[in-house]
UniProtKB/TrEMBL annotation:
Family annotation (SUPFAM superfamilies): Phospholipase D/nuclease (SSF56024)
Keyword Repeat: yes
Transmembrane segments: 6-31, 43-66
Example GO BP: cardiolipin biosynthetic process
Entry keyword set: Cell membrane, Lipid biosynthesis, Lipid metabolism, Membrane, Phospholipid biosynthesis, Phospholipid metabolism, Repeat, Transferase, Transmembrane, Transmembrane helix
Species assigned in the record: Brevibacterium koreense
One annotated GO molecular function: cardiolipin synthase activity
UniProt topology in membrane: Multi-pass membrane protein
Annotated NCBIfam families: bac_cardiolipin
EC number assigned by the record: 2.7.8.-
Residue ranges of every copy of the PLD phosphodiesterase domain listed in the record: 221-248, 405-432
Annotated compartments: Cell membrane
Name recorded for this polypeptide: Cardiolipin synthase
GO cellular component: plasma membrane
């Protein structure tokens, strides 16, 4: 009997070893498929060295693509976008821009179906409370409908002015539709009451990317809809980086140390509003099954001449529904276009190989490259992963400006040669390029680029510059943690 148990134990041990190596051999062939090298390496290291952790994690989180239903919805939306825009040129006829820039606008259109059109900017708002108040004012002007899509929403003392405006709009017969991210919003006070409060005042709402297994709503738990937008009657829109929550994010620690988030939003009118509305319509259909239709660019709108208050604008939506990473490709193309200056503002700068190469190459070419980040990021892992790139950036000649802690610089924008600019919800990290649904606005001509450039100048005045000499003095334990967090950041 003793011999039999030994034989059984030996067989089980050999079987386990064979199964483990079989899984590892399969992983080597499966993991790198359609995945960037850094991500493949990180996953393979985890699977090969800690299979009991790596294999389950990969099965749950390993694919950057959303489920088949959502992929089909995105494909259907792309067809609808073509219906509204196929007759339009790639860029406004009056735009005077180099061929190299026009090719980037054409790239954006091929990746998203959205052409570059004209639009009017009514100002970039960097005051947190003022932007919420302006959104409330726009809602109070609504006569037909209001569409709201914001990653994090909380009905608190700061945002009450906005939610009361939505309540008034619904009371006077305006159709109000609201989307907010399930996982992104659920950890904040009042989340479990928010839906009931919205329903009570006559507002239609849905969770974005809900994870509710007991209701058969299953998905990758690490996917987020990170977009922030407002559309009123198809005539006015606002978009940017700001969530609908108090600037302290309602955390006691943040209040105690005086930490606040700093963001920008832009108010838009003109043909570009149709593109913003199309993004909302796609996401609303994804969550509700209700087709709102895609608003076309004709009707009362027309292509005004670019210049003055009118800019050329192109919306660049991105996310798991797109398999081509539109934001990453447009961003890197613009950075290679830079000749004199490249100024980047990002709360989470954890670039992939292509973006890092574009930034460092620009600096090596003699472009004045500036990177604006928080002195201390609000997330531990991001703080260390981001700073792991500082040495190579500083050595290449990139100037790094640290926005003073405890403040969080949450704005996402960059400016190229003071001629082209991008702003929106997308960070400069691998999560925003592959896992989050984002929207970014590419613009040139008109005065919007100047407004964004002035915002960057404000950040420069408030920040201090990090030197390579200072950075080399950081302790060894920090260097070690930077390397570990850099590796984990590639797990997607």
């Amino acid at each position: 009997m003793q011999l039999d148990l030994s034989v059984v134990g030996a067989i089980l041990g050999v079987s386990w070893i064979v199964a483990e190596y079989l899984v590892k051999i399969i992983a080597i062939g499966v993991v790198p498929e359609n995945r960037r090298p850094s991500s493949s390496s990180a996953w393979l290291l985890l699977i090969l060295f800690v299979p009991i952790v790596g294999i389950p994690l990969f099965l749950m989180l390993g694919s950057p693509y959303i489920n088949h239903r959502r992929a089909r919805i995105q494909a259907d939306a792309d067809e609808l976008l073509h219906e509204g825009a196929d007759e339009l040129p790639d860029v406004p006829p009056s735009l005077q821009a180099p061929r190299e820039f026009v090719s980037i606008a054409q790239l954006g259109r091929r990746l998203t179906a959205l052409p570059m059109v004209t639009g009017n900017s009514h100002g970039v708002i960097s005051d947190y409370e003022a932007s919420i108040e302006r959104m409330a004012e726009l809602v109070d002007e609504a006569r037909e409908y209001v569409h709201v899509e914001i990653y994090i929403m909380a009905w608190d003392s700061t945002t009450d002015v906005f939610f009361r405006a939505l309540e008034r709009a619904a009371a006077r017969g305006v159709k109000v539709k609201v989307l907010f991210d399930h996982i992104g919003s659920r950890k904040y006070p009042g989340f479990h009451r928010l839906g009931r409060r919205l329903t009570k005042v006559g507002i239609q709402w849905h969770l974005m990317l809900p994870f509710i297994p007991w209701r058969a709503k299953l998905r990758r738990i690490d996917l987020r809809n990170h977009r922030k937008l407002l559309v009123v009657d198809g005539k006015k829109a606002m978009m940017g980086s700001q969530n609908m929550i108090d600037s302290s994010y309602l955390q006691k620690k943040n209040v105690a140390i005086g930490r606040h988030w700093h963001d920008i939003m832009v108010e838009l009118s003109g043909p570009i509003v149709a593109a913003v509305e199309a993004v909302f319509a796609t996401d609303w259909y994804s969550e509700s099954g209700e087709a709102l239709g895609i608003r076309t660019y004709d009707g009362e709108f027309h292509e005004a001449d670019v210049g003055g208050a009118t800019s050329a604008m192109q919306l660049v939506p991105s996310g798991p529904g797109f398999t081509t990473e539109p934001n990453l490709k447009v961003f890197t193309s613009l950075m290679y276009l830079a000749q004199t200056r490249l100024a980047i503002v990002s709360p989470y700068f954890v670039p992939d190989e292509s973006l890092l190469a574009a930034v460092i190459t620009a600096a090596r070419r003699g472009v004045d490259v500036e990177l604006y980040v928080s002195e201390k990021a609000d997330q531990f892992m991001v703080d260390y992963a981001q700073s792991s790139y500082y040495r190579s950036l500083l050595e290449a000649g990139v100037r790094i400006f640290l926005y003073p802690k405890p403040q969080v610089l949450h704005t996402k924008c960059f400016v190229v040669d003071d001629e082209y600019a991008v702003m929106g919800s997308s960070n400069m990290d691998m999560r925003s390029f592959g896992l989050n649904y984002e929207i970014s606005l590419l613009t040139t001509g008109g005065d919007l680029v100047d407004d964004i450039t002035e915002v960057v100048a404000d950040y420069e005045r408030a920040s201090r510059e990090l030197s390579l000499e200072e950075w080399e003095q950081r302790p060894l334990i920090r260097r070690y943690l930077e390397s570990v967090m850099r590796l984990t950041s590639a797990l997607q």
